[in-house]
Amino acid sequence: MLINSADTVVADALHGMAAAHPELDVDVERRVVLRRDAKTGGRVGLVSGGGSGHEPLHGGFVGYGMLSAACPGEVFTSPVPNQMLHAAAGVDSGQGVLFIVKNYTGDVLNFQMAAELAEEDGLSVERVLVNDDVAVTDSLYTAGRRGTGATLFVEKIAGAAAEEGAPLDRVAALARQVNESSRSFGVALSACTTPAKGSPTFQLPEGELELGIGIHGEPGRERRAMMTAREIADVAVGAVLDGLAETGGPADGPVLALVNGMGATPLLELYGFHAEVARILAARGVPVARALVGNYVTSLDMAGCSVTLCRADEELLRLWDAPVQTPALRWGR
Amino acid sequence: MLINSADTVVADALHGMAAAHPELDVDVERRVVLRRDAKTGGRVGLVSGGGSGHEPLHGGFVGYGMLSAACPGEVFTSPVPNQMLHAAAGVDSGQGVLFIVKNYTGDVLNFQMAAELAEEDGLSVERVLVNDDVAVTDSLYTAGRRGTGATLFVEKIAGAAAEEGAPLDRVAALARQVNESSRSFGVALSACTTPAKGSPTFQLPEGELELGIGIHGEPGRERRAMMTAREIADVAVGAVLDGLAETGGPADGPVLALVNGMGATPLLELYGFHAEVARILAARGVPVARALVGNYVTSLDMAGCSVTLCRADEELLRLWDAPVQTPALRWGR
Amino acid sequence: MRDAEFFRDWLEAAAAAVEREADRLTELDSPIGDADHGTNLLRGFTAVRTALAGADPSTAPGALLQLAGRTLISTVGGASGPLYGTLLRRTGKELGEDPEVSDTALHRALEAGVGAVAQLGGAAPGDKTMLDALTPGVAALGTSYRAARDAAEAGALATVPILARKGRASYLGERSIGHQDPGATSSALLLTALADTAEGTS
Amino acid sequence: MRDAEFFRDWLEAAAAAVEREADRLTELDSPIGDADHGTNLLRGFTAVRTALAGADPSTAPGALLQLAGRTLISTVGGASGPLYGTLLRRTGKELGEDPEVSDTALHRALEAGVGAVAQLGGAAPGDKTMLDALTPGVAALGTSYRAARDAAEAGALATVPILARKGRASYLGERSIGHQDPGATSSALLLTALADTAEGTS
Ligand SMILES: Nc1ncnc2c1ncn2[C@@H]1O[C@H](COP(=O)(O)OP(=O)(O)O)[C@@H](O)[C@H]1O
Ligand SMILES: Nc1ncnc2c1ncn2[C@@H]1O[C@H](COP(=O)(O)OP(=O)(O)O)[C@@H](O)[C@H]1O
Ligand SMILES: [Mg+2]
Ligand SMILES: [Mg+2]
Ligand SMILES: [Mg+2]
Ligand SMILES: [Mg+2]
Which residues form the DhaL domain (chains C, D) (predicted)? Predict the structure, then answer.
């Protein structure tokens, strides 16, 4: 691993972000990445965060038209309430703060504690849970669907609304709409290695893959013999469309598509995989309004990919297209 | 690997690029990625290309303010002259065409043949060779320094000049200036696996690394026991600065810095590595005018990184900052 | 009666156990989790040690546990940080400001602490979580410290055949069966540290 | 005299040899290259087969070789595509339009072809490239086809101890020593195919 030590990876990365992005206010001590102009805009503040190891999520999405602040935890470990409190205080300009929380027990509990404390400090805080991963059944018998690729859609679209000056309840409602309109499915071709453990989080023999994986190096729901990109796309897109069907809404409405790499899969392969995803969606009569292909919600050095689709109405498309200027997502300015 | 078959990876990826980037004209048959408006701008045409497996280089750099066209070869195999001829014809609007060629025997020979044929067809063609890798001694006893990370700087800055309407000789001169002002050094923490071979191109035991690698899965100049990010940065930045010193120019002038991932190294680690690079440059009194951290000139699923520095005068900085709108590099519009 | 020294000893013993077992906890968290439980608790209990060392010598048992709980919350993260933090904070609150507490009072306070964990996390015994060690372990405090340790250890072992319904392991469905829950294992360490401390001093 | 059929047979034998040895060529290209030489030539010679099958039966030897050379240039890429393409194109040009050519004419033409390769790539024998098999191999044609094959094979083997000065292997410096050059190996295949074809028909 390209590190100094397992203990310092997160702090080292924040030092690097500070050096590479003078336009951001990176508080290495308190572990918060903030927009420099977060407090001056009179906008709703958008705060997200989670374990590190999913870069560019979330720190790479801080900036104009997206997040106001991000709180990176240790690798695969949700951040602690102090970080979110500091972020909330740093971005609140009186319009209130939205916490965007991926649905993992740790993230939920820590953001919940932070929200309670922030409200004691007099801030208005709303929370939205992202839970788009169809590989997990959302029932009393699980911790619920995980938050994965849809986080990018939620952060981008809520960020655009906040940038436009939408009030907290509207930003939160849009964020919830995006989440409810999004579903994801992920596949691993290799396990990942956390700096602390130093060896793969699970054993995946050559020639096998894991279907229905999360983004924390956990194994998936099922192990199979290696499949072609086309076969994998069939399974993933099928699962996502089935999941979307359960949410209601028009089966042939336009979608935003994210073909996301888990970290170690070459972009060459991701584009080839996207060709299959696009082919299947065309065959199913689902128009792809916008597509994004790349490594956005990763799992360290895991090989594999995920597909996220979001049914987008005119308003969501407009907000998706709105200018954004962050380290990892940038257009329109 | 996330592929259908080794034979189809390049075509499949081009299909995916076509689907993901309607703003580009992707000719899957002829294997050329073009700007849709390449011929209408009255600009010098910029054509690059090389083996696939280095994505986003080059196809991801086609668009406003950067390349007019890219020619992807098979994985790690330079493209054939027909591709460059087709690209040249597709982008020439009478102002001439610049071929940006990484210094590998295959790329050099194929672009040379294409240039001869294009000139027979009446086009004005200039060629610029990129050869920035200090791990290779540039002497009669080698094929010369390899072209690696500096390619991005050359393509961006020459692209900005072309976009502004600079004539062919000026665009070529700037491209050469950027190349002569740039040096790189790369490190591998793992080998990569090509689709055709299906197994790692060389054996690198856990706990060892290769110093001075290229971007084609070839081993480096030297194998060492694993080093910390700080130690690796010391070696890499030291080698690059030594290489730059030989080119003359002010030792304390501002630089553009690219901390580039080889494909499988997590962005978290790349940022941590960049922190070390920035620290060393600060200690050496070299101001970093602009920094770019990410996977730009990759080697499939190789773990590792490279450092490229380019001594940049006011004019190069201005052209670096100029708007660019491509799949992989985008700012200012 | 148990004085502040006893609680310091307990937390120190817990920290030592976590240090010793951190790799094993992370290893248990690999097949059914995200391979960080040991690192998480090690970071937290190292901070607890520092916090306790800095705390006024006159700090009462309840305040010590609350301090430890707050420290875990602000340093661990993940699921286990808020849960263990809540366990200790709530237990500490129940103990009030008395400089010495009875075994009965500690038992009652721990029951309240475990209840707060169940409420915060929404889990119940049988879901393959820390509650599978905490609940029987604390219940057995009514008998003896030794019984509490044995019950907690048995509870942790008994998570092996369970299909997880809470926490990350629940994502695996059937594949969560056959693995011991890391949180239940660390809970058994905490109650073992308590029992060992009580036996060594009573 | 060698007619067009002879040249078709030679190129077919070369294509068959490349097909048989492709994995080995790629394997040789791994430690000192980029692991594509076998795939490159397989793609090229497969296209050559198709091109020859589509060529008018009356096509003369020189034109056949030029067609094969152009086909390699437009399908192989890499370093070997232009170099082998130039070898065949230049050899073909030298042969002119005669429907039959003598062994001496072929020898001269191949010498010109090898010269063109040296000029294009800027390499000389001893640099650890295809020239280390081509140059001695073609020179030995003055003696016999068998001698050409033996010299080419010996030349390929003799690249093992050489420190590379051209092509990718030169990036490795000292580490290029001890490996056989893939291009010299494929060149030996081409001259072996020539010798086998000549022996089979003479
Ligand atoms: N809802 C819950 N209620 C009680 N305990 C839980 C719950 N969710 C998870 N746990 C416990 O937390 C442990 C995992 O802790 P840790 O690995 O530190 O956090 P994370 O799962 O966030 O990585 C699990 O083994 C389980 O015992
Ligand atoms: N300058 C050169 N002159 C002659 N032969 C060369 C030269 N450079 C490379 N070669 C030959 O080409 C072979 C490699 O071919 P190939 O692997 O197909 O191309 P690439 O190196 O572009 O991947 C080398 O083994 C060597 O024999
Ligand atoms: Mg965790
Ligand atoms: Mg090659
Ligand atoms: Mg865990
Ligand atoms: Mg090669």
Answer: 5-196
CB < 8 Å to B77, chain A: none
Share of chain A above pLDDT 90, in %: 90
pLDDT tens digits, D11-63:
999 999 999 999 999 999 999 999 999 999 999 999 999 999 999 999 999 99
**Class assignment of domain B9-180?**
alpha beta
**Residue C168 alpha carbon, nearest atom of ligand 1:** 21
Task: Report the alpha-carbon angle A16-A18-A19, nearest 5.
Answer: 65
**Residues bordering ligand 6, an ion, CB closer than 5 Å:** D 29, 33-34, 36-37
Domain boundaries, chain A: 9-180, 182-321
* CATH architecture classification, C2-201: Alpha Horseshoe (1.25)
Q: D88 and D68 in contact (C-beta within 8 Å)?
A: yes
Tally of CA atoms within 13 A in the half-sphere of C32 that contains its CB:
27
pLDDT for the residue D202? 57
Element spanning A308, H or E:
strand A304-311
* Residues in the ligand 1 pocket, defined by CB under 6 Å: A 77-78, 105-106; C 29, 33-34, 36-37, 40, 78-80, 83, 121-123, 129-131, 166-168, 181-184
Cα of D159 vs centre of ligand 5, distance in Å, is 55
CA-based nearest residue to A110, from C60, B258, B150, C72: C72
Residue A308 and residue A149 in contact, taking contact as beta carbons nearer than 8 Å: yes
Using the beta-carbon criterion (under 8 Å), do B15 and A275 form an inter-chain contact?
A: yes
**Where do the structural domains in chain C lie, given as residue ranges?**
2-201
Task: Band the pLDDT of A41: cuts 50, 70, 90.
Answer: confident
How far apart are the C-alpha atoms of A26 and A28, rounded to whole Å? 6
Question: How many whole angstroms separate alpha carbon A299 and alpha carbon C96?
Answer: 44
Q: Do D168 and B135 touch (CB under 8 A)?
A: no
pLDDT tens digit sequence for A287-299 = 999 999 999 999 9
Task: Report the mean per-residue pLDDT for chain B.
Answer: 96
Contacts of C33 in chain A (CB under 8 A): 216, 218
Of ligand 1's atoms, which has the minimum distance to the CA of residue C81? Answer: 18
Query: What would the pLDDT profile of C84-132 be if each residue is shown by its tens digit?
Result: 999 999 999 999 999 999 999 999 999 999 999 999 999 999 999 999 9
Query: pLDDT by residue for chain C (202 residues), tens digit each?
Result: 999 999 999 999 999 999 999 999 999 999 999 999 999 999 999 999 999 999 999 999 999 999 999 999 999 999 999 999 999 999 999 999 999 999 999 999 999 999 999 999 999 999 999 999 999 999 999 999 999 999 999 999 999 999 999 999 999 989 999 999 999 999 999 999 999 999 987 5
Which of C46, C127, C171 to mutate: most A Cβ within 10 Å? C171
Its pTM stands at 0.96
Dist. CA B331–CA B96, nearest whole Å: 26
Superfamily of domain A182-321: Dihydroxyacetone kinase; domain 2 (3.30.1180.20)
What is the rounded CA–CA span in Å between residue C81 and residue A84?
A: 15
Residues within a 6 A CB radius of ligand 2? B 77-78, 105-106; D 29, 33-34, 36-37, 40, 78-80, 83, 121-123, 129-131, 166-168, 181-184
Residue C202 pLDDT:
56
Question: Half-sphere exposure of residue C53, counting CA atoms within 13 Å on the CB side?
Answer: 8
Q: Which residues of D48-69 are buried (b: 16+ CB within 10 A; e: fewer)?
A: bbebbeeeeeebbbbbbbbbbb
Chains near A with 3+ CB pairs less than 8 A apart are: B, C
Q: ipTM of the predicted structure?
A: 0.95
Per the listing, tokens 């290769």 go with B210
C-alpha–C-alpha distance, residues B181 and B308, integer Å? 10
